[in-house]
Amino acid sequence: MTKQERITKLLEEHNLEGLIIQQVSNFAWATDGAASYINTATTNGVGTLLVTAEAKHLIADNIESPRFEKEEGLKAGGWEFHTHRWDQPSDALAKLTGGMKLGADGVYPGAIDLSDELAVLRSYLDAGEQERFRQLATRCAGAMDKAIRAVKPGMTEFQIAALLSGATQSNGVLPVVVLIATDERIYNFRHPLPTDNKMDKYAMLVLCGRKDGLVCSLTRLVHFGPLPDELKRKAEAVAYVDAAMIAATRPGKAVNEVFQVGKAAYAKTGFADEWHLHHQGGPAGYDPREFIATDAVDLPVGSGQAYAWNPSITGCKSEDTILAGEDSNQILSAIAGWPMKQVEVDGQVIERPEILVVD
What we know:
Blueprint: H1 3-13, E1 18-23, H2 24-30, E2 44-52, E3 56-61, H3 65-70, E4 80-84, H4 92-97, E5 102-104, E6 111-113, H5 115-122, H6 127-148, H7 157-170, E7 174-182, H8 184-188, E8 202-211, E9 214-224, H9 229-248, H10 255-268, E10 281-284, E11 306-309, E12 312-313, E13 316-317, E14 320-324, E15 329-331, E16 340-345, E17 348-353, E18 356-358
């Protein structure tokens, strides 16, 4: 089923005639990977899409239209262009939608907000998207490996962030999230923006990288000198929680069932309350998480969905992006040569990354 067919079905379910798309993530999904952002932190991009049962329209100014045509290939992909001069407002969308019953991927006057439905819809990846995700994850894993092996005591978190960002962009991927914490900051903050704090012995590097619209996430940790016993215990525990969630992420199982497996794994390892301190992740796709898993999310895991679980125990974390397949799960962001722990869960062995220890 094409993206337009999937959108048409969504419109029919809500008795609507057209869908307005402005968010960067949905724009990329609907166009098979086109980039509508200039500011990488923006939610809505520089182009607007209108999709109906019969047509696909793009509204953009004369700054953006040439790139959408020549580099993103949207005209060749069947999108009808409506270009206006950058210094003049466009009336194209109003003319195209006059009298229509509309949906939108956010708040739009007179339209029904379908952003939640679209997040679920785009989380089910087709064969082409799955292959693009594999290639993206390989690039992200390579960037993480290169960066973290170059980390040295005395570096600031900004310098470590520069290593990771540079390696990621050198691999043709846009780093949309780079979180760095060293030493005590790893214990204090779940979302540590990099600072000028200098590393002594311990660093955590977190990456969410985007290419062709898709976003892959992974975390790795490095420690100089022997691991303290308490940190070693936490690393083993969080690896078990992650492995339990990965093993449970199978087609047909509800997302909240996987979430409950994670909570039970926390309790089994002696860290029952740690899940309260940070979300546990969810499906990955055109956002780092298309939605966050909770006890209330009873949507089924689907074959072809990517997931990035990110369990954490104060001072330690485990995170990779996986692909749920018909027969088995594939860990997409695995790093070749990284020290791994064999974790046995429900009769199967799941490999999870250990903390890289440098003597």
